[in-house]
Amino acid sequence: MAMLEIVDFGKRFTIHHLGKTMNAIQSINLSLEAGEFIGIVGKSGSGKSTILKSIYRTYLPDEGKIMYDSERFGEIDLAQVSERQMLYLRKYEIGYVSQFLSVMPRTTCRQLVTNALLEMGESEAVAFEEAEKALAHFELDPKLWDSYPNTFSGGEKLRLNIAMATVKKPRLLLLDEPTASLDQQSKIKVREIIEKLKNQGTTLVGIFHDIEFMDGLCDKVYDMQKRQLTTTKEVVSYES
Fold this sequence. Notes:
Keywords: ATP-binding, Cell membrane, Lyase, Membrane, Nucleotide-binding, Translocase, Transport. Residues 4-238 form the ABC transporter domain. It is found in: Cell membrane. Belongs to the ABC transporter superfamily. With 240 residues, this protein is an alpha/beta fold. The protein has a single domain (4-234), classed as P-loop containing nucleotide triphosphate hydrolases (Rossmann fold). Helix content is 31%, strand content 26%. The protein has seven helices and ten strands. It has a six-stranded mixed sheet, sandwiched between helices. Strands 2-1-4-5 form a four-stranded antiparallel sheet, covered by helices on one side. Strand 9 and strand 10 form a beta hairpin. Helix 3 packs across helix 4 (124-137). The protein is globular, with a radius of gyration of 18 Å.
């Protein structure tokens, strides 16, 4: 069976002060096998992030199913699982990288990445070593490792966010424009990690406006306008 299958997915949002309900997205169908990487492209407002947030259950779908082949629970519908099950999946199986960093205050950069591994059951020694490797890979200045991220630039926060998610080597990794505010060198580092995770069997779904970044990396591309899977060479360039 597929690692992830989205069937007739739809999501609505209610604007309460206007008393209106709007269809954000409708009739999304896509699936991917274990170890595949699907990129999602489309204009701003087309619902790309809504799909990722619904897989991660930040949003609850209004229509359809999101079937996931969990290592712990078997085949489950992420739209229907309990909060306890979803918390487990986020902790051990499903990672999410967004453009924004939301972390506990007064927790240092090094502690955040180390804690991500400790909650997976790694020993303190292994967690500490792997955290340092991840921070070094994304070229975060060692002077920042014991600083609080609220002092970081946007690019530094994004690199920390990616380090926290990828160091856990999740079975399914969701990437919501992870290179949005990064320079070219940092983008290369992100691509190296994605390729490494993919080679290790991680399944990935990602949103990228940089079509060149996706070329040769994604197995398939889902075009929001065409509502179909295609290849990077067939994708038009969308404005962000």
